[in-house]
Amino acid sequence: MTFQKPSHTFTKIHLKALHTNNFKILFALSFTVFISTLSFSQDIQTKGRTINRTIKDSLVTSIDSLVVTETSEKTQDTIAKDSIKPKKDLLEHIVKYHASDYTRFSNKKQKLYLFNEARIDYGDMNITAGDITIDYNTNTVYAKGITDSIDGYTQKPVFTQSGNVVEPDSIVFNTETQKALIYNSKTEQGEGTVISEITKKENDSVYFVKDAKYTTAENLEDPEYYLKLRKAKIVPGKKIVTGLANLFIYDVPTPLGLPFGFFPQSETQTSGVIIPTFGEQNDRGYFLQNGGYYFAINDYVDLAVLGDYYTNGSYGIRLENTYAKRYRFRGNVGFRYENLITSERGFSDYAVNTIYNLRWSHSQDSKANPSSRFSASVNLGSSSYYQQSINQVNVASFLNNTLASSVSYSKTFQGEPQVNISLTATHSQNTNTESINMTLPTFQGSVGRIYPFASKAGTKKGIIQNVNFQYNLRAENRIETTDSLFFKKEMFDDAKAGFQHSIPLTTNFKLFKYFSASASTNFNEVWTFKTVDKTYDTTNQEVVEETINGFDSFRTYNFSTSIGTTIYGMFNFEKEGKDRKIKAIRHVMRPSISYNINPSFDKYYDSYEVVSADGLTTSDVDYSRFEDGLFGSPNKNFSSSMGISLSNNLEAKVRDKDSTATEAKKVVLLNNLNFSTSYNFAGDSLQWSPVRMSGGTQLFNNKMSVNFGATLDPYALDNNNNRIDTYNIDNGGSLFRLTSANMNASWSFSSSDGGKNKKNNSGIEENKRSGGRADDLFGVSEDFANKQMQDEDDDKEEKPSELYNYKIPWNFRVAYAVNYSNSQRQSEISSHSLMFSGDIELSSKWSVGGSSGYDLKNAGFTYTQLRFERDLLSWRMNFSWVPFSTRSSWNFFIGIKSSILSDLKYEKRRQPDIQL
């Protein structure tokens, strides 16, 4: 290489003859073609200052005049990467396939054939069918069934993708675009099924259908009803959006339809509108009932806001809340408010009445916290709520005459000794007298039993080692008010508060080997914050009572002891060589005698003089300043009494009807037969108390329960029907005088499978929440629209037999009660009633039932309700009828069972014309 001076203006070129080599020329051409075909060029973007072409470089090579530009390593490192994305592979996932008969691949057509029980897995897509063809040229999968001359068209395709299952006659699926054409498909969407002749699958989350059927029927080959969707878009698991749709019943079109529709398909709870029911009442006009909105707040809490409206201006609001957390707690809260208007403004009978009701039920799981527990059962409100409410949900609760509530919390502190505390608020309300008794709150605390003389080994023997004592505390704040003052500040004016401390000291021991004896003494101390002072007003000739606010207390004690034993008697009827039906009768008696001493605490008593108008003292009246206290007043008179009681139990052993049984069968004759009375040694007259007798037993394999009781008085009556200190037998009568008696019996029996009827469970649960009976003897709720889904699963438990059922399932319940009164020689039946209810399944889809009663004393039927129910496969029809009384009404309902179409219903009712 030589360097050339810039002053030189010419370049010398030397020519050399070249030798031609054909092989090298051919190799060079081949390499050039190969490089041109497989190589790519790219521009290098240089950075920094550009070179001015007009300026010549001072350094010129001696070989040629081309200027070589040096490129730094830094410039080379900054070359940008190629922005062209690589092409996707032909198949993104591994294709897994299987067939029972054969798997054949055509290399010429680039097709794979699978026959008989064919299966393809491609990503999250799965296809099973009788015949599957894969075309690799068009990336298409064809799936269809197999046509057999005997079985017909079998092994229809089943297409599954992203949890969505489609069962068509045939399917064409493109693996590249994820689109598909589905023919004669049946797809489950939520609680319903979409039946479509042609379905276009856009992707794994969108389907388009035309002239499809949407139904919740079980028989998809011949559905009893469906909604015909002209055009619809389906997003599996989320929604179905449709254009014009109308209802078909057994392929017969009906005028019921919608210009467009939206069907939510969420697998979880969703919020939505609750369509009301409509009707007419003579007093209040047309109405809409139980319409509103359902809020699915989260997985643990929901809320339903319902309302009623009547054209005369009456309205009602109903809030229903349910909450639950597994292994912790569950409960529900309900509030109902009704503003009822009677007649019209300006008329004499115009009235506005406001009623309300609050219910709360809370239960804690036993596993949540073994040392503490919280529970609530609240039912309070207007005394006349159930009697005046015009909502159908309360139709079976208007006979309730008592509302009760209880909210309690208890805590146990483990240790030695154990400490228990509880805090309780209670409420009791009589709907007839409108009186209300409440405790806000009641505190109870106790310290476990302490055995101060027990041995260290833990065993307790004898009278000394069994001596034990404990400490109990009860604090209470009691309120007695009326319905008109409820939740007003006046209800607290006469509240009573107090504390009661008690320390019982007890022991027990064996006496003469066969007797069990016990002895106890109890110390009580009562604290109160209000006492009374009584004086006699001579001017007005009346007693004046003054309430004194301030702390005061009194202390009492008593002593008691008891002794008892158990006597067994066996009457054996078996004889050798004879197989008697009654083998033996066993009689168990438990007699006991107790003795009680209650000293006199007259030091807590004062007196006032009653002065006549002429100024003479007629009498001295004793009173205790604690007599209006929460826990009463101390005992003034000394008492020494003995109590006597005897309990009996009778059982029999009888021959078992089962010939294979090796032992006799035990039958209970009398569960219990008890007698009790007492004798007061300190009394100057009428020392014997009446004998109280009670008993009960079970009959007919424990299906019938019988309980009875009676009161027997040994003393006679004078001419004014007052008890006198003369025995009735000495007055020309019997040994005892029957003063009262009662008996009640309940019998529930059914056919062999009639006991499986659970169709009234939701109504009975509503009765219990309202404080009513735990059966249907007083009827059940008629809220058909909101309870239609609650017992749907019961219908699927057992499929009806195709054979004729000659035994009609039925169940029947009877309750009988009678009360006798003869305390003052009236000798009358104070109450005598018979109640009955039952259900009969005339067929697997048709049932009738009813509940009624008869007042045997007043000779008249009690509240009667007749019920009819027809299971129409996917539909349900109910009819309830109260034929007579002031509550006469009827209610007809027909609607779809499925919750997704629960608004597709018809309800017509005639409500009772209630006179306030």
Account of the protein in words:
The structure is a single chain. This protein is mainly beta. Among the domains are: 95-264, lipopolysaccharide transport protein A fold (Sandwich); 268-400, no CATH class; 751-916, no CATH class. It has a 30-stranded antiparallel β-sheet that branches. Mean pLDDT is 82; it is low at 1-19, 33-76 and 788-798.
Amino- and carboxy-terminal Cα gap: 127 Å
Q: In terms of per-residue confidence, which ranges show pLDDT below 50 for 5 or more consecutive residues? A: 1-19, 33-76, 788-798
Helicity, in percent? under 10%
CATH class of one domain: Mainly Beta
The overall average pLDDT, rounded, is 82
Radius of gyration: 46 Å
The CATH superfamily of one domain bears the name: Lipopolysaccharide (LPS) transport protein A like domain
Q: Helix segment count?
A: 6
CATH architecture of one domain: Sandwich
Which short descriptors sum up this protein?
single chain, 916 residues, lipopolysaccharide transport protein A fold, 16-stranded antiparallel beta sheet, mainly beta, disordered N terminus, 54% strand, 30-stranded antiparallel beta sheet, elongated
Topology:
Elements: H1 22-38, H2 73-77, E1 95-98, E2 102-106, E3 111-122, E4 125-135, E5 140-144, E6 146-148, E7 152-154, E8 158-161, E9 164-166, E10 170-174, E11 180-189, E12 192-203, E13 206-215, E14 225-235, E15 239-242, E16 245-249, E17 252-258, E18 261-264, E19 272-274, E20 277-281, E21 285-295, E22 301-310, E23 315-325, E24 329-342, E25 351-364, E26 372-381, H3 385-388, E27 402-413, E28 419-430, E29 435-450, H4 462-465, E30 468-482, E31 496-511, E32 515-537, E33 542-564, E34 567-572, E35 582-598, E36 605-611, E37 617-624, E38 639-654, E39 665-680, E40 691-699, E41 704-713, E42 715-717, E43 723-727, E44 737-750, H5 761-769, H6 784-787, E45 810-821, E46 828-843, E47 846-855, E48 860-861, E49 865-872, E50 875-882, E51 889-896, E52 905-910
Antiparallel strand pairs: 1-3, 2-3, 3-4, 4-5, 4-8, 5-10, 6-7, 8-9, 10-11, 11-12, 12-13, 13-14, 14-15, 14-16, 15-18, 16-17, 19-21, 20-21, 21-22, 22-23, 23-24, 24-25, 25-26, 26-27, 27-28, 28-29, 29-30, 30-31, 31-32, 32-33, 33-35, 34-35, 35-38, 36-37, 38-39, 39-40, 40-41, 41-44, 42-43, 44-45, ...
